[in-house]
Amino acid sequence: MENRRRYTLILDAASLAPAVPTPHGLGPSGMTCPSVPVQGVTSTGLALPSLAPKVLCIAEQPGELVGEILLSSTITANRAEDGLGLLRSQDFDVVLVSLPLADCASAPNLLEELQRAQPGTPVVLRFPSASGTEVVRLLRLGAFHVYAHGDATSLLFLAAHSKWAQEAAPATGESERGHCSRLLIGESRPMEQVAQQIRLVAPRRSTVLITGETGTGKELVARSVHAASGRSRSSLVAVNCSALPEALLEAELFGHVKGAFTGAVGHRTGRFEEANHGTLFLDEIGDMPFGLQAKLLRVIQEREFQRLGSSETVRADVRVIAATHTNLAELIQQGKFREDLFYRLNVVPIVLPPLREHPSDVPALVRHFMEKICRDENLAAKQISYETLDRLAVHDWPGNVRQLENAVERAIVLSGERTVLLPGDFPLPPRRHPAAYQSGTMIAVPDQGLDFERTVGSIELNILEQALRKTRGNKKLAAEMLGLKRTTLTAKLKSLAAVGAAG
Question: Which distant-in-sequence residues (6+ apart) come within 8 Å of 235 by Cβ?
Answer without folding.
Answer: 274, 275, 278, 279
